[in-house]
Amino acid sequence: MANIMIRKGDRGYVFYMPKRDIEDSIVSMEFDSPEKWGGEIKLGNGGIYYIEPQTAPARLPYSLRARRIDGVE
Amino acid sequence: MSLLNREEAEALIQEVLEVYPEKAKKDRAKHLMVNDKAITQSKKCITSNRKSVPGVMTQRGCAYAGARGVVWGPFKDIIAISHGPIGCGQYSRGGRRNYFAGTSGIDSFCDVMFSSDFQEKDVVFGGDKKLAKLIDEVEGLFPLSKALSVQSECPIGLIGDDIEAVSKKKAAEIGKTIVPVRCEGFRGVSQSLGHHISNDAIRDWIISNRDGKLEPGGPYDVAILGDYNIGGDAWASRILLEEMGLNVVAQWSGDGTIAEIENTPKVKLNLLHCYRSMNYIARHMEEKYGIPWLEYNFFGPSKIAASLREIASHFDDTIKEGAERVIAKYKPAMDAIIAKFRPRLEGKKVMLYVGGLRPRHTVGAYEDLGMEVIGAGYEFAHNDDYDRTMHDLKDTTLIYDDATGYELEEFVRQLKPDLVGSGIKEKYTFHKMGVPFRQLHSWDYSGPYHGFDGFAVFARDMDMAVNNPCWTLFKAPWQKPAESTAEAEAA
Questions:
Q1: Which CATH superfamily groups domain B1-60+346-491?
Q2: Which of A58, B25, B68, B256 has the smallest CB count inside 10 Å?
Q3: Which of A7, A21, A59 sits opposite B49 (nearest CB)?
Q4: Is B176 in the A-facing interface, judged by CB distances under 8 Å?
Q5: For B221-327, CATH number?
Q6: pTM of whole model > 0.90?
C-alpha cells in the first residue's frame, strides 16, 4: 500500500506517488461515477494500481491509499 | 547542429564507461544517455535518484544540506539551529548568497550560525537538555526572531533524541513556532530528500497555523515558491510580477518570513520556480486549499515572455494586458543586450551540470544568446525532472545523471565545450583544464540571473567567461610551437 494523489490534468486524471516521484496519466479507471469511484487504474507507463472503490471525492486533488498490482515501479 | 551524431555520442559513453569495474559499469550505464525527443518517458532510458556508486567522486550533498542550506536557510526571520556537531552548521552558513533585506543578527538571521556544538558526552547522554538550553539562550540573545527551526545532523537520528518533544515544550514556553526538522544527513541518496523533508515539516508545523483566521485574499494574490533569492533573483522576479498587476504575498524562501508562509494559503495561484525543491508543498496546498500551481521559467527573455503570458492566462484581462505591457516595455532593452552579446557568443557550446532544475531552465537563456547546450545533467533530479528536460534539449544532447568527477572531466575533454556551467566543486578542475567556467549554483558571486534585469547580468557574465583573454595565455612560453619561438628570437 502506498500513498498516492490523484489530480485532474488537461486530459483526464493524473496519478502522483510522492514516495517514488512517479507522475503519470491515468489511462483507465475501473469505476468512474459519483457513487462508485476507483477500482483498478492503469497508468500511461503500464503500471496497474488498485484503489478501494468509494464515492467520488468532492474535490480533486485527493490523497488516498493504493495497492500496486502490476507493472513498473 | 549538434556536435556529435547519435553513434558518436553512444560511443563516447561506452568509452567513458570502460574504466569502471563490471558492476559499477553496469550501474553507471543506466545513468548516461543520449537525448531523443521521441521518448516521452524518461524512465525507459535513464535512471535517477539512486544511490551513488561507492568509490566514485559524486558531487551530491546530503539531506541536511537540502534542508538547512536550501529550504530553511533563506527564511530571514526564522533562526535555523544546526543541532549536532559544529562543522555542518559552519559550512552551510550563508555560502549560497541568498540575499535578504534586514539587519543581520537583529531581525534577520540568514548569515548567522547557530549550533548546539555536540560533544562526545552529548552523544553518550543525549542532547535534548542542551537543545533546550540553546533555545533559551537564543531567545535571550535574539528576541526579535519570529520562529526557530531545529535542523538535525546525523548523530541526532543515530542516538534517537526526541527533538519534537523539546520543540513542543519550548514553543509553549517562549510563545514562538519551533519546527523540528528530521533532516539527518544519512537519509536518502542526495539533498533532494532534504527538500522533501523540509516541505513536509512546513506542512506539518507552519502552514496550518492560521487556518480559519486568515483574511480573504485579493483577486491577484500570488506566491513565489522555490526562488531562493540568490544574488537577488527573487527580487528581480518579483518586480515583473508586480509590474503586471499581481500582488506577491509570499516569497519561498529567499527573503521570506514566517508570516509570509502562514499567509500563503490565501493566494489564488502558486508560482513554482524550483520544481524539484518545492513541488511537494505546492501539491499539498492544491489538495488542502485548492490553490492551483504553475511552473514558470524566468531565465532569458523568450522564456520569461512565455512564462508571463502563461501566468497571466490564469487571471483576467487586466493582468493579461499587464503582461503584454511588461514584455513590450523590456523588449528594447533585451534586444539591445542580445544585439551586443549574441555576435560574441554565437555558436559557442555549453555543458551544464547543476542541481535539480537549472540544466533545463537555463537552456532558453543560452539559446537567446545563440549558444548551444551540448550536454546537460543533474546531481539529484528525479524521473519527473528528466521527463520535463528531454523536450527542452536538442536531439543527441548528452545527458548524465549524478555524473562522477571522472565522467565530467572525460566528457569535457572529448566534447571540448566553450563553457562549462556547474558548481564550486567542479570549478577549479575545469579552470586548470583551460575551459571557461561559470558557477551555476551561486552565479559565481554575481547575479541576479532571473528576470529581465537578471538576463543583462547573465549575458555579460557569460561573455566575460567565454571571451576572457586569459584563455589565450594558457600555454607556457616554452610549450609554444618552435617556429613562433624562432620568430621571437629573430625579432
A1: Nitrogenase molybdenum iron protein domain (3.40.50.1980)
A2: A58
A3: A21
A4: no
A5: 3.40.50.1980
A6: yes
d(CA A26, CA A44): 6
On whether any CB of chain B is under 8 Å from the CB of A23, the answer is yes
Closest CA to B182 of B73, B281, B83: B83
The residue type found at B52 is: S
- Could you confirm whether B62 is annotated as catalytic? yes
- Chain A hits for B290, Cβ within 8 Å: 59
Joined grid coordinates for residue B268? 489564488
CB-based burial, B65-93: b 16+ in 10 Å, e otherwise? bbbbbbbbbbbbbbbbbbbbbeebbeebb
Q: Does B313 touch chain A (CB under 8 A)?
A: no
Q: What's the ipTM?
A: 0.89
Is 3.40.350.10 the CATH classification of the domain at B63-205? no
Query: Could you report the per-residue pLDDT of A3-37, keeping only the tens digit for each?
Result: 999 998 888 899 998 887 788 889 989 998 889 99
Every domain of chain B with CATH number 3.40.50.1980 lies at 1-60+346-491, 63-205, 221-327
| A chain contacts of residue B41, beta-carbon cutoff 8 Å | 44-45
Question: Smallest Cα–Cα separation from B454: which of B293, B285, B279, B231?
Answer: B231
